[in-house]
Amino acid sequence: MSKLSEATYFILVALLREPLHGYGIIKSVRTLSSGDVNLAVGTLYSALDRLAETGWVAVEREEIVNGRARRYYRITDDGVTAVHTEAARLRRAAALVTRQMAVSGA
What is the pTM of this model? Predict the structure, then answer.
């Protein structure tokens, strides 16, 4: 598995707790990233389409709100594995930087 984009990583992390609809994902990603990742609607749905194709997210349910369909997405077991793998990769990368900084006295 290749590394995940920052947006994709935070989308998967947002879905770890519970299924969310699009706007809920956008809000959760903004909060989880301390405002560093602000997803545009088009970016979100393109990412969700890709994640669904890989089998990492699935539509949990759909409901009609104000005459419009609202889809709730959930992370799959494969998606959980992917986000855990990426978190481990990021931990290793951060540890490397921390060690280098200690050695160089930075």
Answer: 0.87
